[in-house]
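Self-study notes.
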Amino acid sequence: MSLFIGLRYVRARSGQFFVSFISWVSMLGICVGVLALITILSVMNGFENELRGRLLSLAAHATLTQNPAALARWPDLIETAGRQPGVAGVAPFVELQALVAHEPELQAAIVRGIDPTIEPSVSEIPGALALGRLADLEPGSANIALGRVLAYQLAVGIGDTVTVMIPVGGTDGDVLNSRIQRFTVSGIFEVGLQEQDGQLALVHLDDALALRGAPGITGLRLRFDDAFAAPTLAAATATALGGGFHVSDWTRENASYFRAIRIEKTMMTLIMLLIVAVAVFNIVAALVMVVTDKRTDIAILRTIGARPRTIVGVFMTQGVVIGWLGTALGIVAGIAIALNVDTLAPLLERTFGFQIMDADVFYITRIPSDLQAADVTLIGVVAFLLTVLATIYPAIRAARTEPAEALRYE
């Protein structure tokens, strides 16, 4: 009986149009709130994945450094590390603080010596732009690949020559001299992050060792099958190699980036939940008005033997149906939009004549989306629970209606 009467109250009737209108507006508000939450969280997940991919495109999942004695036998370390569970690749590297010059420009840079036969090509990295190939970084070729911003600051292009200078210090830390070598720009890459595009220069490992003028590599770069397991796997790999290394992984080096994204996601979730909260308050208001309007009906039901819990069920049914419909519609619409953001965004740009992600301003020129089932489930459950809670006060108020008082003036 509670379900039947509650469903009748949900439908619009001539004498209750305003109350029913408020109910349907509440349902629409819940739908919009859920839709917005799913879409926004999916887009933010997409941006987080894009940022992570760009950070890891030229960066290692983990590095092992500051153990010169062990690193002197790095070919053996690479072989041992490559056999460790979860390790997808190991590569030696040399990293130098340097000045890169092309008259009249002079820029500070990080010159990284790599082995292109082990490192991936920039052109194979999703979201990266490469002019030239890392494969052109051959031993003794004196070729160099520059980040796009660094190349722009130096006003150089493919085939131009730059001068690389590194300081040579004494035992007391003073700079005694500098080592200078000329390199030919064989590649320009763009990952989309200032830290790499504006500071990084890549040369062959042998050329970096020759430029430094000292034997030994800086460390080992590790890649794992699961990037999120980097902290655990990096420590285990360092232990397997005999220990004594300084272990650093991408989650530690880029913690500030992802902490900022988490804070933004949390704040956006709270803001979007306000839409749902407003709709929930509308449900409370609508049910209170229904209770007031139906005092006579409630009194009659109580008179013929309906229990208070039956009355509670009637009005909770009405609120739950509104909440369920709004949440379900919001989930369906939110999933549809989140899965088609890459299609809808260009359509909006063409229709209204504006560009959402201007290539002159943003590195990322498209809106990425990553729909996660956990987010959809959490949003749906929270929205539905809020609507259930909204029905409690009006339902209890209806159950407390005194039949004699309600029928006195009827």
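Second protein, same conventions, sequence then structure:
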Amino acid sequence: MSRPRKPRVDAPLATAVLERRELWEGVADALREAIVGGALPAGASLVEADLAERFAVSRGPVRDALRELAREGLVVDLPRRGSVVSTLTFSDTRDVYDVREGLETVAARLAIERATDEELAALREHVVAMESAWDRGADYGESLSADLAFHRQLVGLSGNERLMPLYEQMLSQTQLLVRTAAQANPSLGLAMRRSAHRDILDALLARDADRTRAAIVDHYAYAEQRLFSDGAVDAPDADT
């Protein structure tokens, strides 16, 4: 009895699929950067035909890019308006920080088990860069980049490849949220309490999982306090 033949993927077809995937990823990357960087503000319309013309591609890659950004929470589809840049609310902010806190707690435990002393110590570079930006009065974007790089590298040290894509979605939403909030309240661009990151780093270097978890929880409690107590993000309605 002969074995069934495996389906054969035609070479030109495979190439076409890869090329299309690269197209939509490039469009998604450009739109993501424009959204989190503020070039495309919250509520801005994203018209497929206009974007296809701008990027010199067909509407297919644009549609795929918008679908990916919607999955990341940066774009929403509204009735009669189509795709628009997301406007993050008080509830969204709490949700994003809750997810980040949970993912980082897991990542930190794994990093303590798996990362080398040198890898953990390398996190200090981002803390130093962040504090240097504050001391020089640099643009808020510089300190924010160092801040997010610290958290991104921490999660990366977990060695869990499934954690990172989930965390990247939260980082994109964080950038959108914080940049929008900083426009309404410039005080957010001022220096944070330095212990917010140093406590996490010191606990990691000591390989103390309980202390690291407590430092991460404290970090996000402080981050929420900065956002909400200064009125940078609207508080929820009284009846919600």
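Instructor comment on the second fold: Strands lie at 45-46, 75-78, 82-85.
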